[in-house]
Automatic annotation (TrEMBL):
Keywords: Membrane, Transmembrane, Transmembrane helix. Residues 40-121 form the DUF3899 domain. This is DUF3899 domain-containing protein. InterPro entries: DUF3899. It comes from Fictibacillus barbaricus. The keyword Manganese does not apply. The chain crosses the membrane at residues 9-27, 33-57, 103-123. Pfam families: DUF3899. It comes from the Bacteria.
Length: 125
């Protein structure tokens, strides 16, 4: 838990710092700095949240059924019967087991929190 919180704070800090640097570099004169910063923070935090959601969906086992279906279809369509047995044992894995959950929660939490924060600040301005 402590390690996930540390990773979330690092990801959030990098997102906030990069949004500030990009806002300073672009120097949009039609908006105030705060408006441009909040807009840039939203642009950066939304892909972080989407990456966290994609990792969560992959880790939950949603795509395991599709991998099994494609493996089964390959077995049905293959012409070599020996190929069936070889590939069945060589490719017997689940996608959810391949995805490491080390960064799933930090990306998900920091992306969602930063996105909600930028939306609420944007509506209060």
């Amino acid at each position: 838990m402590k390690d996930e919180l540390k990773k979330s704070l690092i990801i959030s800090g990098i997102a906030i710092l990069s949004a500030a640097v990009i806002t300073l570099i672009t120097g949009n004169e039609s908006k105030s700095f705060l408006e441009a910063f909040i807009t840039m923070l939203f642009y950066i935090s939304l892909p972080i949240a989407m990456l966290g959601v994609a990792l969560y969906v992959g880790k939950s086992g949603f795509f395991d059924f599709f991998a099994y279906s494609f493996k089964k279809m390959t077995k049905v369509l293959s012409r070599n019967p020996d190929y069936d047995e070889q590939t069945q044992f060589a490719t017997n894995f689940r996608i959810s087991e391949r995805i490491k959950g080390n960064y799933m929660r930090p990306f998900l939490f920091s992306g969602i929190i930063l996105t909600i924060f930028s939306i609420t600040v944007a509506y209060t301005l």
